[in-house]
């Protein structure tokens, strides 16, 4: 008996060592394209393009390849080619939804990274963002009136496409107004209390992507630029509403975006001689904006919008787990397997704790307030009762033994970082204040990964159990099947990495003329000056877009 226990212990120990070695050899998507993103950071866009094409050459990555290369071409100033690539991305994305049973079966025989990349809804909105900018910058060239009109029509089409996409999302997920009404219901308040008592610190309903305030704001700018004032006002109004009712709080944006969108709504109304501008103005809290609005004379000044795209978005990583069967307790136990640097391991541990580990409210409060906390032994495993299923498991020869040894699972996590620097704008050497965070793409990625975390774990458990069972039915020993399954297990960590981390804006009304601008981006160890000239014309909107890369 003792010899058998010793043998089992040695097998499990050897399995764990092999598992760690296998995991060390697995590379996430962000690791695979490190050379491409490094070249992008250095401004070597041809090399970034080449490396991106090499990593994403498989057909399953077509959508992601078109999106990544579309941004690179945008950075190169090749707006026509950027639009060609992004149009291919749009057409492809229209037919890609959900995960089918067939795809899960494919994943069981390979891994999640071998499935067709489908993109997230918020990523799809940025296809239209870049296409709108491309058309605008093309229209600023030396073209005939007919050619310019064609480009302006194309801008409108992209705006309509983005509008349809966001309207569909609101229909599916509910608006921020509906979310607030639901939150106020007694049943939801009671459920919230019990969730907190159970230590559930993540509420997927509060993190769900519902709408994109920044995209509505940009659509308002586009409509206004080309004289469609009614559409511009509607877009600004919706942007203000979405920012105010939850978007600012949900993604950690600048509260000033609420007043900015309201200001532009009122400005359009005043241009149309619509007395409702005064009612909108009364809801603006910023006194300077109120004063500007009172003094505003339509067509007398130029309008400048500066868009700063901050660095690159954060990458997805992989959380490795081991699932074991405790036959005595008749339950599956899932624990984290930590790899990487101590900082990465701490992040992985926190991710597992918040999303999967059992805990009570006191546990959660203690954990949240302990800075530098790192003790894997104090984290209890996630447990799932399998009593009624044991008889089914016993029908697959060796499955019980393999589950007792352990099965590797892999699910996505998101390595979120705050924006690496602050930004401010000077005009002719005079400060105009800070740039405002208008959208947080890294935050959108983070929230989406959190919302899908439970379903990702469920899928991983089902797929790896199926993979293990299939292997055992071939007659291979349980230990060998566990190791073979572990070697091919991989989470899908692909995402659109050339998107910026954050988007900041500054909007100014200035007299007609030539101006020297400087976007100053800095932290205690970094400073970047982005100097440029802008020629402003009264009654016209000038759009300037800059990408600032963090190079400490």
Automatic annotation (TrEMBL):
Superkingdom to which the source organism belongs: Bacteria
InterPro entries: TPR-like_helical_dom_sf
PROSITE patterns: PROKAR_LIPOPROTEIN (PS51257)
Protein name: Tetratricopeptide repeat protein
């Amino acid at each position: 008996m003792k010899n058998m226990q010793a043998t089992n212990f040695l097998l499990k120990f050897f399995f764990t060592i092999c598992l760690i070695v296998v995991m060390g050899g697995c590379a996430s998507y962000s690791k695979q394209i490190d050379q491409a993103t490094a070249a992008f950071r250095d401004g070597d866009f041809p090399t970034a393009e080449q490396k991106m094409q090499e990593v994403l050459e498989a057909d399953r990555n077509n959508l992601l390849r078109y999106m990544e290369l579309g941004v690179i071409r945008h950075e190169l100033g090749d707006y026509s080619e950027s639009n060609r690539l992004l149009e291919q991305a749009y057409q492809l994305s229209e037919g890609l939804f959900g995960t089918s049973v067939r795809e899960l079966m494919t994943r069981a025989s390979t891994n999640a990274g071998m499935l067709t990349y489908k993109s997230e809804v918020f990523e799809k909105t940025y296809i239209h963002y870049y296409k709108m900018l491309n058309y605008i910058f093309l229209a600023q060239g030396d073209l005939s009136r007919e050619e310019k009109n064609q480009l302006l029509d194309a801008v409108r089409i992209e705006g309509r496409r983005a509008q349809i996409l966001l309207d569909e999302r609101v229909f599916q997920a509910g608006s921020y107004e509906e979310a607030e009404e639901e939150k106020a219901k007694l049943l939801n308040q009671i459920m919230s209390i019990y969730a907190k008592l159970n230590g559930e610190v993540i509420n997927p309903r509060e993190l769900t992507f519902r709408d994109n305030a920044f995209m509505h704001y940009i659509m308002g700018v586009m409509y206004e630029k080309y004289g469609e004032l009614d559409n511009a006002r509607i877009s600004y109004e919706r942007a203000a509403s979405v920012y105010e009712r939850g978007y600012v709080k949900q993604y950690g944006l600048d509260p000033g975006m609420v007043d900015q969108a309201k200001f532009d709504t009122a400005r359009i109304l005043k241009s149309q001689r619509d007395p409702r501008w005064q009612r909108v103005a009364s809801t603006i809290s910023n006194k300077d904006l109120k004063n500007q609005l009172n003094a505003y004379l339509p067509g007398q000044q130029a309008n400048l919008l500066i868009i700063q795209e901050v660095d690159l978005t954060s990458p997805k990583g992989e959380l490795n787990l081991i699932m074991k069967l405790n036959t005595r307790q008749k339950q599956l136990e899932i624990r984290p397997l930590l790899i990487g640097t101590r900082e990465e391991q701490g992040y992985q541990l926190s991710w597992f704790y918040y999303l999967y580990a059992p805990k009570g409210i006191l546990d959660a409060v203690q954990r949240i307030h302990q800075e530098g906390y790192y003790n894997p032994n104090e984290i209890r495993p996630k447990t799932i009762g399998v009593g009624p299923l044991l008889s089914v498991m016993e029908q697959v020869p060796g499955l019980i033994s393999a589950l007792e040894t352990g099965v590797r699972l892999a699910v996505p996590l998101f390595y979120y970082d705050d924006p690496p620097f602050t930004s401010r704008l000077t005009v002719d050497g005079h400060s105009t204040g800070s740039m405002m965070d208008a959208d947080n793409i890294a935050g959108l990625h983070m929230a989406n990964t959190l919302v899908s975390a439970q379903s990702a774990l469920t899928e991983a458990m089902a797929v790896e159990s199926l993979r293990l069972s299939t292997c055992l039915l071939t007659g291979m020993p349980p230990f060998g099947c566990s190791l073979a399954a572990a070697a091919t297990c991989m989470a899908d960590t692909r995402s659109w990495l050339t998107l910026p981390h954050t988007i900041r804006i500054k909007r100014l009304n200035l007299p007609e003329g030539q101006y020297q601008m400087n976007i100053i981006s800095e932290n205690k160890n970094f400073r970047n000056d982005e100097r440029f000239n802008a020629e402003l014309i009264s009654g016209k909107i000038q759009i300037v877009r800059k990408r600032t890369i963090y190079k400490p």
